[in-house]
Amino acid sequence: MTISLALEQLLNGIQLGVMLFLMSAGLTLIFGVMGLINLAHGSLYMVGAFACAAVAALTGSFWLGLVASLACAAAAGAIVELLVIRRLYDRDHLDQVLATFALILIFSEGTRWLFGSFPLYLDIPPLLQGAVALPGDATYPVYRLAIIAVGALVALGLYLLIGKTRLGMRIRAGESDREMIGALGVDIRTLYTLVFALGSALAGLAGAIVGPLQSVQVGMGEPVLILAFVVIVIGGIGSIKGALIGALLVGITDTLGRLLLPQLLTLFMDPSQAGMIGGAAASMLIYVVMAVILSVKPRGLFPPAHA
Amino acid sequence: MVLTRENAVNLTLAVLLLAVPLIASALGQPFYVTLATRIAILALAALGLNLALGLGGMVSFGHAAFFGIGGYAAGILASHALSGEPLLFDLPGTAQMPIIWLVAVIAAGLVALAIGALSLRTSGVYFIMITLAFAQMVYYFAISWPAYGGEDGLSIAVRNQFPGTNTMRPLNFFFVAYAVLLAGIGLFALIRASRFGAALAATRQNEIRVAALGIDPYRIRLAGFVISAMITALAGALYADLNRFVSPSMLAWHMSGELIVLIILGGTGRLFGPLAGAALYVAFEFALGGLTERWQFFLGLILLGVVLFARGGLLGLLAGKTKHG
Q1: What would the pLDDT profile of A33-48 be if each residue is shown by its tens digit?
Q2: CA B72, CA B237: separation in Å to the nearest integer?
Q3: How far apart are CA A76 and CA A62, in angstroms?
Q4: Over chain B, what HEC string results?
Q5: What's residue B214's pLDDT?
Q6: Residue B1 pLDDT > 60
């Protein structure tokens, strides 16, 4: 194995981590502020990807598609919040799980209804095609680097939004004491809708930017949703910092594990067996990491101080 | 047994489930026998989960793992029995259901002990996500392990045998599943009435008081979780035999979601809730599936309506509210 391969896989891991961060930031924000577990977050990811693919196919512009994905996911999130989610804040987690599970069925089947069962494809925009050179003769696609940049920008933007703005102050206040902030005259219902739409837009963005790397199809959100759960459980539910660190940890562990474990096992057994066992073990690796972290810190790496 | 409204509804359900396949079989409609078998098996799987979820308040979103482990126990043992290759340490495979069930229950119990020991250190929404994540771990393992079919799954050429009956006949297999379901319901009732069941329900209602009484809530919950997983695994073994096929989809998180749905449709924590829920679910699936290809869309809408507006499920509607807790 060469250095360049390792570097390439490391970058792939960071790229996966960044995408997971976009998903888990919304998920953890929604849980932190509203105390809601949202299984339908993966559906919003799918909505973003489909909106981007459909608009890009219609107009020929990936960038318009990207705008559409943000708008559609945010709108879908806001509508769902107003119609359904709003009634779930006072319910127990079981009701929330079920209602959002029902939403997944509706979203998935509805999307299949609209777009058919065949996957859609998205092209990488011309601006971001091509590759850059890595040390040691290898190249790396510009588009994947752009994803990493987008993730870094979103992380910075969220930090500024939550830490430095009036809206962010209200969000933080909502996390610590929702009755108090309501009593102080903040329109808590609108705030909740806003936070939900923001989280949905982030999920939609994640779906749209991953679109060109894989096919856009019904059910694409579910594996990502479950990885995002692992991320926020590792990071501490409600913590954006935890989501960032957890996402990078999961992304890098998963990618490098798939590369390294089979190679490591060839030291002990013949290659075909090592490939088989290593592959199976690598697919379980992040869950093992999660189990280890939870056995040391049951509330994740960065548990919120309250709640 | 006092003939309360709930008992009357329960009895009707049990008799109906027995009557439908008998009549269908007499009329030469084996399809409905299979449908009833499916109801019985799904009800048993949900009954297992109901022990953890309804009685113990542990919202496990990973019971598909145990359902699938049961299924794979049946599939793997049957495939070794067919090929004649020894399984482990020269032990042969088997096509005898009682042995398969024992293996399924023990295997799932051990896995549940490990998953439960870790997951029960947390609670609430963490518990939901962690059980889901561990079930996904088992799922991905099944997909990436090629020895038993990997993603394609594993067929069971001939349905496994139960002593004294020909299980290839749909009605006979239904009787086996029905008997196991009744035994499961009996076990659930026994547990609920026992000191252990009271302690388990108490950990749901008030953990601190349980601890103050000198009972360790963690151990009670872990025991409840393991028993719950074992019952669901038994249903998984039967389900594999029903379809004569086992695949990673039995382990998928959709399955975990479906099991929870069955309980909620029927009525959480109730003895016959899983049966009522399974009957309703399979009937929905059958009726809606006949009307439209998009039946899952409407199932989602119905489910949403039940969660938002009709808490208590079918039994809540038919038999009134539970007395307490």
Answers
A1: 888 888 899 999 999 9
A2: 7
A3: 20
A4: CCCCHHHHHHHHHHHHHHHHHHHHHHCCCHHHHHHHHHHHHHHHHHHHHHHHHHHCCCCCCCHHHHHHHHHHHHHHHHHHHHHCCCCECCECCCCEHHHHHHHHHHHHHHHHHHHHHHHCCCCHHHHHHHHHHHHHHHHHHHHHCHHHCHHHCEECCCCCEECCECCCCHHHHHHHHHHHHHHHHHHHHHHHHCHHHHHHHHHHHCHHHHHHCCCCHHHHHHHHHHHHHHHHHHHHHHHHHHHCEECHHHHCHHHHHHHHHHHHHHCCCCCCHHHHHHHHHHHHHHHHHHHCCCHHHHHHHHHHHHHHHCCCHHHHHHHCCCCCC
A5: 87
A6: no
* Phi, psi dihedrals of residue B258, rounded to the nearest 5°: -60, -40
Single-letter code of the amino acid located at A73: A
Q: How many helices (H) and strands (E) does chain A have?
A: 11, 2
| Interface list for B 96-125 with A (CB within 8 A) | 118, 121-122, 124-125
Which of B141, B300, B303 lies nearest to residue A283, judging by beta carbons?
B141
Tell how strand B154-155 and strand B245-246 pair up. antiparallel
Average pLDDT value over all residues in chain A = 86
The pLDDT value given to residue B322: 60
Q: With an 8 Å Cβ cutoff, are A105 and B132 in contact?
A: no
Among residues of chain A, what percentage have pLDDT more than 70? Answer: 98
Task: Return the pLDDT at A50.
Answer: 92
Tell me if residue B56 falls in helix, strand or coil.
coil
CB atoms within 10 A of CB B201: 20
Report how far residue A295's alpha carbon sits from residue A41's, in angstroms, rounded to the nearest whole number: 27
| Dihedral sign from CA coordinates of A98, A104, A107, A113 | negative
A229 phi and psi angles, rounded to 5 deg: -60, -45
Nearest by CB to residue A37, choosing from B128, B299, B308, is B128
Nearest CA to CA, how far is B256 from chain A (Å)?
11
Residue B134 sits at the chain A interface (C-beta within 8 Å): yes
The phi-psi region of residue A152 (left if phi > 0; otherwise alpha if psi is between -120 and 50; otherwise beta) is alpha
Give the SS3 label for residue A187.
coil
pLDDT in tens, B214-264: 889 899 999 999 999 999 999 999 999 898 889 899 998 889 999 998 988
Q: Give the model's pLDDT for residue B325.
A: 45
Tokens of A139: 């190249």
